[in-house]
C-alpha cells in the first residue's frame, strides 16, 4: 500500500473572491493566519448571529464577505481609542495582533518566566495575575468600563461583575443615601448620644 501525501498551499486572503464558499477550517486559516480563530470559533460566532454559514452536503461553509461582516460587528462603535480594524493593521505592515519580528507570538511561557525571574517575583505570578492586577488598578482609578474591558480583552459586563467592587462609584448611591439621611437628621448643635 502506498500513501501519497499532497501538500496544498492556500491562497492569500486578498486573493479569495468575496463570494467563494470556504470550509470553516480553511476560512479560519486564511482570515486569521495567527491562529486566533478556528473552525469551532467560527461556529460559535455563527451561533451568536455574527457569521453566516451554510451547510452543504453535511459540511459548513462561509465566504470571505461573511467574515468581513463579522469583523465589522466586532468593531467597537463610537470608541475613539479603539484598535484599527484588521485590514488597516495589515496595510500598516503588521500581519498579526501580537507579533515579534514579523511572526506571530504563539507562546509566552519562556519569556514570561525570564521576566518574572528578572523582576524577582514569586513563582506564583502568572500572566493571569498581571491581568487581575491591571483590572483591579484600572477599576480603582475609575477607568471607563468599556476602555478597561477593551484593554484587558474582556466584556464590560464581566469586568463590572468581577472587578466592579474596586471602582470608586461602587455603592455610591447607597453611600449618598446614608449621607443625605445623616445630614437631614443630625444638626450640628445637637450632641450625638451613644449608649
Salient structural properties:
mainly alpha; two-stranded antiparallel ribbon; 5 strands; 45% helix
Order of helices and strands: EHHEEHHEEHHHHH
Strand order of the largest sheet: 1-3-2
Shape descriptor reads: elongated
The largest pleated sheet is described as: 3 strands, antiparallel
Portion in helices = 40-55%
Radius of gyration: 25 Å
Distance between the termini: 96 Å
What amount of the residues lies in strands? 5-15%
Low-confidence sequence ranges: 77-91
How many domains would you count in the coordinates?
2
What is the number of helices? 9
Q: Helices and strands: which structural class?
A: mainly alpha
Find the count of extended strands (DSSP E, 2+ residues). Answer: 5
Overall pLDDT score: 77
Characterization of the model:
A hairpin with a 2-residue loop joins strand 4 and strand 5 (103-104). The protein has helices at 24-31, 39-47, 64-74, 86-91, 109-118, 127-140, 145-152, 156-163, 172-185; strands at residues 22-23, 54-56, 59-62, 99-100, 103-104. 11% of the residues are buried. The protein has two domains: 13-104, no CATH class; 122-182, no CATH class. Helix 1 (24-31) crosses helix 2 (39-47) and helix 7 crosses helix 8. It is built from nine helices and five strands, in the order βααββααββααααα. By secondary structure, the chain is mainly α. Strands 1-3-2 form a three-stranded antiparallel beta sheet. The chain has a two-stranded antiparallel ribbon with strand order 4-5. The longest helix is centred in the C-terminal third of the chain and has 14 residues, at 127-140.
